[in-house]
Structure formats: structure tokens, C-alpha cells
Amino acid sequence: MTTGDGRDDEPMWPMAAPAQAGVVPAQAGPGSTRDGSGGGADGRGVVTDGSGASAVAGDLVSGESGVSGAGLPQAEAVAGVPSGGGDEPEVVGRAGRKRPRAKVIALVAGLAVIVAVVVAGGIALNVYDQQTKIDRSTPTLAVSQLVDAMFTARDESTVARFSCKKADLGALRRLMTNVKDQEARFHTHISVAADEMKLSSQSVVEARLSLTGEGWNNFQNWAFETANQDGWRVCSARQLT
């Protein structure tokens, strides 16, 4: 400060020396004075109080003096790096995100079982389809399957598939009634099958019906009239003498 006579007066309080690089200037605490009677900071970055006790500013930052560092700037936390500072970043392994081998093996085994079931089901369906396929390509096939439907499967819906629209099958049905009566009377089962089939004309099939019971069998000769109605079908049946 310059006085009236041109002389520079001494400053009202000592100017603080420039802070050295890396040293945090100390702030005047409560009760300190600017005239030197209380605590203050010297040019070396040392905090002093009235009694002469001092602490290095670096100790306040590091916490080595036992004074809490609350209110001082803290290093910004970095994701994955512990707050302690110098430790290596924590690395999260990928093993936790992989499926355990046991689950993969179980999944593969389950898929294999499903494929096996589907394949086996397809084979079984094909075999069943071949066994139950309706084949009316010839008169003899129509006779054979009609006899099987009536006496073995005993399924009237299948009989109708091999019969003409106005079929006369009364004689064959009477034979079926007789077979059922014998089965009920003697508590046995009688099987009937057509064999030794031959065409006596273009549409007439002669066949032998074999009736087989427990300890006995019988043979009857029959003639079946057929017609091609969207495939060959049986229109009539009669027993030959």
C-alpha cells in the first residue's frame, strides 16, 4: 500500500508464499488470526497454531495424522476398482455365465430321446398302415379282406368297405351266427379264414373257408360274386355243394 509521501507501507498482513506443486494450502481455522497471534500457514504448506504445533498438509490428505479427511476432495471411484486405490481391478470370470456341463448333457439326451420316440412312432404308424391298408385292387383281395373283417376282426364298418352297395351277404352272415353260437355253447373260439382262392370267371371268386376250433377243423367251399365299384367289392356269397 502506498502512503502520501510515496513510500510503500508494509502490507497489513504477510503475503502467503505461492503454494508448492502438490501441496494443499491450509485454510485458516476457527480462532485463527491474520496478525500471527493465532494459527496460520507458512510458505512451506505447514499449518501452525498459536502454540507452535504443526501438521503437514499432506498428512491431512492421507489421514496419517489421525485427523478425519471429511470435507477434502476424494478420488472419484472407478467401476471395478476397489476404493482402496492400488489394488488390481476385480475381474468377473465368464464361468458363471456358462451352462454347467451336466445341463448340456441332459438337454442333448432329452433331444435324442424325443427324436428316437418320433422315429419309432413313424415306423410303427407305417407298419400299422400297411397292415390295415384297404386294398381292393383285385377280386381275390376283396374276398380275403371281407372274410377277415367279418370273422376275425368282426367289424361291420370294415365289412362295408369291401361290400357292394346292395350286397347280398345273408348266407355268410348265417355262418357267422352259427360260429358265435358254437363259441358260446362250448366256451371256445372258432377261427375262419379264406384260402385256395381262384377266379372261376372274371368276377367270381371260388374259395375254401377253413373253420378251426379246439381240436377240430372243417372246410366249406364258397363262391363270391364281385364287382368293380371304385375298387373290387363282394356283392354276394353262397356255399357250394
From TrEMBL:
<feature type="compositionally biased region" description="Basic and acidic residues">
    <location>
        <begin position="1"/>
        <end position="10"/>
    </location>
</feature>
<feature type="compositionally biased region" description="Low complexity">
    <location>
        <begin position="16"/>
        <end position="35"/>
    </location>
</feature>
<keyword id="KW-0812">Transmembrane</keyword>
<protein>
    <submittedName>
        <fullName>Uncharacterized protein</fullName>
    </submittedName>
</protein>
<keyword id="KW-1133">Transmembrane helix</keyword>
<feature type="transmembrane region" description="Helical">
    <location>
        <begin position="104"/>
        <end position="128"/>
    </location>
</feature>
<keyword id="KW-0472">Membrane</keyword>
<feature type="region of interest" description="Disordered">
    <location>
        <begin position="1"/>
        <end position="49"/>
    </location>
</feature>
